[in-house]
């Protein structure tokens, strides 16, 4: 409960006090009043937050780093898991480790565009035919529409072939632009909202044209050096552990396995920045303090249409509206949330998404605000060997030339994808439902001899072979 105080001031005779004396007395007691307010400021259960992160680490549900900063003061910081795993050699994550922050890059790109608007070098209403006329609908698409994901520019990617992995192979600016130019618009500009990484890559091209510098150089000059970020930069190659960058992993049956890295040239101005939670917090505080763009431009960023601002998103945690962005690719992720009224920043980065990052952020904020929150047990459901045996077999579908093998060892079901030499343990969440958390959900119907595999991109039904 918030405490209130009445301060009584005893003076000899009120009538003899002149205005100057009253002012002097007021400013004498003001620090005491403020100090009382500070003492009874927001406190939270740090032990419970430690327990939450201990549980995530113990159950292999997350690896990553968190920082909570209020009024420029660190309230809490924690790192769990490993930045590098090489057999039995494991290098623990620390607050010094750097992470790929994915789409939080879009906040930086948006800030640079709005700087150029503040400088009169761009207008939000400018159409992109002034810069890249060959893009379909260029004469209709405005800078503002791209910032708010309302341009109709679709997400593009190269066609996979047997000679290359499209995610791990670098791409040139010219190749990327060519893909965007050849793509069919998703919709007429401003007619709807659809998240577009390619749109933010176009903004990177525009920044280069307007500034006469590379996106990387503009980023360094206009944000990184401007506000003194020490651990933030644009990735240009593979994850480098010698720079304290954290490798990315996936948990497969209690064992951490490395994940293929998307080459940062593919992500570019939409998702290629490397940073730390502390630097991310410094960035968003500077943004809201008017050190990067004008207050007018910041207000433009915060205007939401269909849940999207200009490179900024709203988040509702613990009944409060935060501003920021989330990001992710491969199996790394990030979340940056800022509450202006309290100058509170929560920044989280992960190199191994298992338990959903949104759930982790909810747990963090509920604990911070002393809301009722039960730390998940992450205990698997126990299923009898007889039921497990009814799921064992080889599953196929006429829709795809692949087969999945399901086996049992003790009380655990194992899932072997096509082309893989090793099977992966499945975690039971119900009598007929299993998961590799963060990757795939597998549901069985023993009566129909069917298995449904659910991924982020959809689901497919497989039938057991006799």
Q: Sheet bearing the most strands, described?
A: 8 strands, antiparallel, barrel
Mean model confidence by pLDDT: 90
CATH class of the largest domain: Alpha Beta
Structural class: alpha+beta
Low-confidence stretches: 1-17, 32-40
Work out the strand percent: 25-35%
> What Rg do the Cα atoms give?
26 Å
The total beta strand count reads 21
User: Termini, distance in Å?
Assistant: 66 Å
The CATH topology assignment of the largest domain is: Beta-lactamase
Description:
The structure is a single chain. The N terminus is likely disordered. By secondary structure, the chain is α+β, with helices and mostly antiparallel strands. The protein starts with 18 loop residues before the first helix and ends with a strand. The chain contains twelve helices and 21 strands. An eight-stranded antiparallel beta barrel has the order 14-15-16-17-18-19-20-21. A six-stranded antiparallel beta sheet has the order 2-1-13-12-11-10, sandwiched between helices. Strands 5-9-6 form a three-stranded antiparallel beta sheet. Strand 1 and strand 2 form a beta hairpin. The longest helix is centred in the N-terminal third of the chain and has 21 residues. The protein folds into three domains: 41 residues; 319 residues, Beta-lactamase, CATH 3.40.710.10; 80 residues, Lipocalin (Beta Barrel). It is 30% helix and 27% strand.
Task: Provide key terms for this protein.
single chain; 466 residues; alpha+beta; Beta-lactamase; Lipocalin; 3 domains; 8-stranded antiparallel β-barrel; 6-stranded antiparallel sheet; 12 helices; 21 strands; 30% helix; 27% strand; globular; disordered N terminus
